[in-house]
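**User:** Once you have settled down, spend some time on the protein underneath, comparing sequence with structure tokens, and judge whether sequence predicts the tokens.
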Amino acid sequence: MVSGGTKQRIVEFLQTVPSATAPELARLTAVSDAAMRQHLEQLESAGVVRRDSPDRSEEHTSELQSPDHLVCRLLLEKK
């Protein structure tokens, strides 16, 4: 179970869309991009969301991806 208002809103929003970026989620929840990255890191560590490149078929081995350009996807099953 996800606790905390911001994290709960992230999960609820990701249940309605296939994916979202950290800046999109930051605007939705009215937190800074840095705060959103922290929330997403915690949710990812808990196995609730996964962050990856927008097009998973692309290989990004030669460059580092900015956390703001990664998309977030919900890992929990939709109820």
The beta strands are 20-21, 49-52, 71-74. The chain is about 40% helix and 15% strand. Residues 9 and 79 are 16 Å apart (CA to CA).
